[in-house]
Design goal:
transmembrane, globular, 6 helices, 168 residues
């Protein structure tokens, strides 16, 4: 695997997150009524996506991805980097599904499409390091970690933001 594919993961992650962070608040404001009507269970999540807590969650994910990338570069062990790559790629699958369900632009779809070729190349290169069974297990593990981290961040980051706000 070339080092460039390893180095690119945190960069691709942030390019994608910038689209979400910049576009999401105005998009939610414009589409909140329709989203709440069509997807009532989402109503409570919309405020999180517009808040500074979302930025804290992005920061936490960036630190994890960067640390795993640096560990891979230093040690040559790709395991944690590869799990991050798989989670990042599965995140795109979720955005593609959202795009087809909502049937119009969603903040994240442009960067998803632009980052997909990188993900395909990096996964193709990375999967050679593991057997088919290991790849399947790592895919499931990355999905579980991704979902668990998302749920945890939706609980923890509003509290972190509240704490920061009280300290200012």
């Amino acid at each position: 695997m070339t080092l460039i594919l390893i180095y690119l993961l945190p960069i691709m992650f942030m390019l994608h997150e910038f689209e979400e962070m910049v576009m999401l608040p105005a998009w939610i404001e414009k589409n909140e009524k329709e989203l709440s009507r069509r997807f009532p269970a989402l109503r409570s999540k919309l405020s999180f996506l517009q808040s500074p807590a979302f930025g804290i969650a992005v920061c936490e994910e960036f630190v994890i991805i960067s640390a795993c990338t640096m560990a891979t570069i230093i040690t040559g062990n790709m395991l944690f980097w590869y799990i991050c790559l798989l989670a990042f790629s599965l995140h795109f699958v979720a955005h593609i599904i959202q795009f087809f369900i909502i049937r119009k632009y969603i903040p994240a779809i442009v960067s998803t499409v632009l980052c997909l070729p990188y993900c395909v190349m990096a996964i193709s290169a990375g999967q050679e390091q593991y057997s088919n069974v290991e790849n399947a297990l790592l895919g499931v593990l990355s999905l579980v970690i991704c979902i668990a981290n998302l749920c945890l961040m939706q609980i923890v980051t509003p509290r972190i933001y509240k704490w920061i706000k009280n300290k200012m």
